[in-house]
Amino acid sequence: MYSRIFFFLLFLIKFSQFLHFSGIKGMLFVSRSLCCRGIGTYQLQTNLLSRSIKLSASDTMAFRHKNTRRIEGLDSNVWVEFTKVAADPSIVNLGQGLPDICPPSYVKEELAKAAAVDRLNQYTRGFGHPSLVKALSQVYERVCGRKIDPLTDILVTVGGYGSLFSTIQALIEEGDEVIIIEPFYDCYEPMVKMAGAKPVFIPLRYKNGGNSASSADWVLDPAELASKFNLKTKAIILNTPHNPIGKVFTREELQIIADLCIKHDTLCISDEVYEWLVYKGNKHTKIATLPGMWERTITIGSAGKTYSVTGWKLGWSIGPQNLIKHLQVVHQNTLYTCPTPLQEALAQALWVDYKRMDDPDCYFYSLPRELESKRDRMAQLLQEVGLTPVIPEGGYFMIVDVSTLNVDLSDVDENQPYDYKFVRWMISSKKLSAIPLSAFCGPETKRQFEKYIRFCFIKKDSTLDAAEVILKNWKKQRA
Amino acid sequence: MLRRAGPFLRHFLLERNCSVGYSSYCSEAKMSRPVQARRLEGVDKNIWVEFVKLATTYSTVNLGQGFPDFPPPEFLKEAFSRAVSGEKHMLHQYTRAFGHPPLVKILAQLFGKLLGRDLDPMTNVMVTVGAYQALFCCFQAFIDEGDEVIIIEPFFDCYEPMVKMAGGTPVYIPLRPKAPKEGKLMSSADWQLDPAELASKFSEQTKAIVLNSPNNPLGKVFSRGELELIADLCVKHDALCISDEVYEWLVYDGKEHIRIASLPGMWDRTVIIGSAGKTFSVTGWKVGWTVGSNRLLQHLRTVHQNSVYHCATAAQDAVAEGFQRELEHYGKPDSYFVQLPRELQQKRDQLVQSLVAVGMKPIIPEGTYFLVADISEFKSEVPDVPNSDEPYDSRFAKWMVKNKGLAAIPLSAFYCEAHKGNYNSFIRFCFAKEDATLKAADDILQKWKLEKTAP
C-alpha cells in the first residue's frame, strides 16, 4: 500500500512537472502541497487535483487566443517608449509632435459654444457633420480650383491617422505593393502590413551642394523611383510637407511621381497634414491638382495640425467619389461617426479663416509665420552647439546629424540603432528629448539614418528658452 | 488572381509608345479590376444611412435612431466646458494613446469595484472612439479568416459586417419568443435562447460569441441562468466572449445587470465593452472603452495603435470627471445611474400605454431605451407585396415615416439576410426622448387609429 502511495505521489510530481513545462503557473505549488498531504486526505487530493487540472487546462487553452495574423509583429511602436519618457516634467520635450502653444482662442471658443447646444452632444452624420463637410468643400474648392461635393468627395475621420487607416483598409489588400518614401511617418509601414500588402521603400537621398543643409537637398532619384513601380504597385504614399525632414516637394518632383502613377495606373495617398506650414520661398502644391491625378489621389488633412489642436483628432480624406465611397464603407464599419461638438467647432473655425483667405491674418498664414521664427531659432541653437541641422522648408520638425558630436555609446546595448541610444542618453544626461530617425525607416535604410534625430519646434518660447539653456551648457562642456 | 491576369495580358497585347494612348489603356485596365479591397465585399450596405436620411427628410417625431433628445446631465456639460476653456490648455493636445490617465484610472476603479477585482488602469482598460470602435478592435484583434463568431439574433447590426470584414464567418442563433402568460403583455424576458440549439452552434471553429446585454433592439436583460449557459459553453469550447454592455445602467423593474466576466472562468476570456454615450447621454462624444485581462487587451492595443491611435482628449477628461462624481454618489438617489433609468422607465411605460391604446403590441423591454412592437394590426395600411426583396417591416417603417411622420426602425434590420423574413411585423422605437416628443408620438398614433376605424 505504501508503494502505491509512493507511486501516486511520484505520478503527481511527474504530472506537475509536465504541466509546469507546458507553461502553467501555480501547478507546481499545487502539486507540492499535494505531496505533503497524508493518506487520509487522498479524496481531497484528487478533488483538488482534478479542479486544478480543469483550471490549468483552461489556462493552457486560453493561450490559443493570440493575436490575428493581420497584427502579427505590429505591436511595438516608437511612441510608446518615447512619449512615456517625455511625460516627466523635468525633461524639455522636443520629441513627439505636440504643440505646447495655445490654439487660437476663437477655436477654443467655438468648441465651448458647440458643447452648449444639446443636439450637438448626440450623433451626427456618419461620414462627416454637414456643416463641417460644407466648410471643407469650400476651403478646398478654393485651394484646388475644382468643384468638391461635400457629401461624396469628403470623409471626416479620427485625425490624419484615421484617414490613412480608412484609405489603406479601403483600397489596399494582400498581393498589393505600396511604395513608401523614407524616412516616413512611422504608421505607414504597419498599416500597409495590416492590410496584408507589401511595403516597398525608396529613400530620399542627400544630394551634396552648398553649405547650408536644407530639406530641399533631400531628393528622390527618378530612375530609382521608376524601378520601384510594377504591376503589383497599388499605391504610393506621399507626404508633403514631409515629416520628419520638412521637405516641400516641388511641382517638378510631384510631376515625376504623377507621371509614374499614371503610367502604372497607381493610386496616390497624399498625406498633406502640414499643408499650411510652409516657410518663405516655398509653396505647397497638391498632387491631386496635377493633370490625371484627381481621379487617383486621396488627399489627407488634419485639424490637429491646421489649428494646433492635436487632441481633437479630426482629419479628412478628399478625393473622387468612386474612391471616397470605399473609405466611407470602411468608416461605417469601424467607428461610424466622429464626435459632433468637435466637428461643429472645426466647421465654424474654418468659416472664420475661409472668409479671410486673402488676408495675411488668416491663421493658415499666421501660424507658419510664427513657426518660421521658431524654426530659425531652433536651427541657430543647434548650430551653436556645433551641429548642422537640416533646415526644413515646411512642417514643424527639424532633423540633425548628431554623429559629429562623437558621443561614445559603444558600451550601451549593441543591438539598438545609434540614434535610439543617443536619444535615451540625451534624455537622461541632458534632460532634452527628441525622436530617433531610424524609427521612420525601413529595415534596409536604418543604418543610413541612425545618426539623425528629430526635434519638434512647435513649442512656446519658454520651452525653447529651456532648450537653449541645455544646449548652451552642452556647448560649454564640449569646449 | 484572374483579375490581375486580365490586365497583364492586355498590357502585352496593347502596348503603346505614346503616353496618352498608354494612359487611356491604363484607365481601361483600372476599370476592369475593382479598386477596392476584397475585405469590403458584402459590408457596404448599411441600414442607418438610408433610415437616418428618411428621418431627417420626413419625420416630425423621430423615435428611430438610438440617441436621447434630452440634454446630457449638467455636471457633465460643466466638466466639458472646464476641459475646453479652462487653464489646462494641453487638453487640446494628444493624451495617452490607450486612454487619458484620469479616465482609465477611474474606469479601473469603478469596474474593479463592480467586478470584485483589482484592475490596472494601464493594462486592463483601453479607451476607444465609442463602443463601435471597441467592437472593431475586438474583431480585428481576434478573428482571422475561417474563424466562426456566434451572433445572437436580433443583434446590433454592425456585428455582422465587422465579423465579415475580419474574414470571419457569422453563425446566427435567434432568441425565440415564448407566448406570454394569459392576459399579460409580452416581455423581452419571453425571448429566450434554446440551450440545445445554442450548444449546437459551437464548433471547433468557434472563436467567439458576441453577447449584448441589455440587448438592443429587444431590451432583454440576460438572467444569471442564461449567462451561465453561455459561460459554460465558452469555457467548454475555449471561446472568447465579446460582451457589449453599453446599456449596463439602463435596467428597469428592479432587475440586475449581471456582468458575464464575473462568472467563473470568464474573466480571462471576456472583453467588456462600455460607452460614455449611453452612460451619460452624450452619444455625440464617441467615448467608449474595453475592460479585460491584459492578455486580451494587449492585442486590442495593437489594433488601436495602428488604426486611430489616440482618442480626443477633452471629452475623455470630462467623462473622467463625470465618473468621479458618480463614484462619489454611487447608489444614492441623486446618482445619474439611479435617476436616468428611473426616468426612462417612466417613459417606457408611457410609450407602452400609447402603443397598447392604438393596437400595436409592445414587447416590454427589461432594459435599454428601445422597445419593439408588433404592428400586425396595422398591416392593412401597407399592402403586402409577394416576392418582394424588401422585408415587410422595412416597407412599413418607410411608409410610416413618409405618411405619418413617425420614424422607427424595422426589426428585420437586426437580422442576417437569410432570417430577415422571420419576424417581419415588428418595429423598434427609441424612447430616450423628452416627454413632449413622446406626447407628439402619441398624438400621431391616436390620430392614426381614429383614421383607421373611421368609416
Describe this structure in words.
The complex is a heterodimer of chains A (479) and B (455). Chain A has 479 residues and is α/β, with parallel strands linked by helices. Chain A has helices at 2-21, 27-36, 42-62, 78-86, 105-115, 130-144, 159-171, 188-194, 222-228, 251-263, 303-306, 321-332, 340-355, 363-384, 418-430, 446-449, 461-478, and strands at residues 92-93, 154-157, 177-182, 198-203, 205-206, 218-219, 233-239, 267-271, 297-302, 315-318, 389-390, 397-401, 432-433, 435-436, 452-456. In chain A, strands 2-10-9-8-7-3-4 form a seven-stranded mixed β-sheet, with helices on both faces. Mean pLDDT of chain A is 88; it is low at 18-62. Chain B has two domains: 41-70 and 335-453, Aspartate Aminotransferase, domain 1, CATH 3.90.1150.10; 74-329, Aspartate Aminotransferase, domain 2. Chain B is built from 15 helices and 15 strands. Chain B has a seven-stranded mixed β-sheet, with helices on both faces. Chain B is globular. Chains A and B meet through α3, α4, α5, α7 and α8 of A and α1, α2, α3, α4 and α6 of B.
What CATH architecture label of the largest domain in chain A applies?
A: 3-Layer(aba) Sandwich
Supply the CATH architecture of the largest domain in chain B.
Answer: 3-Layer(aba) Sandwich
| Tally of DSSP helical segments of chain A | 17
Q: How would you write the strand order of the largest sheet of chain A?
A: 2-10-9-8-7-3-4
Assigned CATH class of the largest domain in chain B: Alpha Beta
List the helices and strands and how they pair.
The complex is a heterodimer of chains A (479) and B (455).
Chain A: H1 2-21, H2 27-36, H3 42-62, H4 78-86, E1 92-93, H5 105-115, H6 130-144, E2 154-157, H7 159-171, E3 177-182, H8 188-194, E4 198-203, E5 205-206, E6 218-219, H9 222-228, E7 233-239, H10 251-263, E8 267-271, E9 297-302, H11 303-306, E10 315-318, H12 321-332, H13 340-355, H14 363-384, E11 389-390, E12 397-401, H15 418-430, E13 432-433, E14 435-436, H16 446-449, E15 452-456, H17 461-478
Parallel strand pairs in A: 1-13, 3-4, 3-7, 7-8, 8-9
Antiparallel strand pairs in A: 2-10, 5-6, 9-10, 11-12, 12-15, 14-15
Helix pairs in contact in A: 1-2, 2-3, 5-13, 6-13, 7-8, 7-12, 14-17
Chain B: H1 2-13, H2 19-32, H3 47-58, E1 61-62, H4 74-85, H5 101-115, E2 125-128, H6 130-142, E3 148-153, H7 159-165, E4 169-174, E5 176-177, E6 191-192, H8 195-201, E7 206-212, H9 224-237, E8 240-244, E9 270-275, H10 276-279, E10 288-291, H11 294-305, H12 313-328, H13 336-358, E11 361-363, E12 370-374, H14 392-404, E13 406-407, E14 409-410, E15 426-430, H15 435-453
Parallel strand pairs in B: 1-13, 3-4, 3-7, 7-8, 8-9
Antiparallel strand pairs in B: 2-10, 5-6, 9-10, 11-12, 12-15, 14-15
Helix pairs in contact in B: 1-2, 3-14, 4-12, 5-12, 6-7, 6-11, 13-15
Subcellular location (chain B): Cytoplasm, Cytosol
Pathway (chain B): Amino-acid degradation; L-kynurenine degradation; kynurenate from L-kynurenine: step 1/2
Subunit structure (chain B): Homodimer.
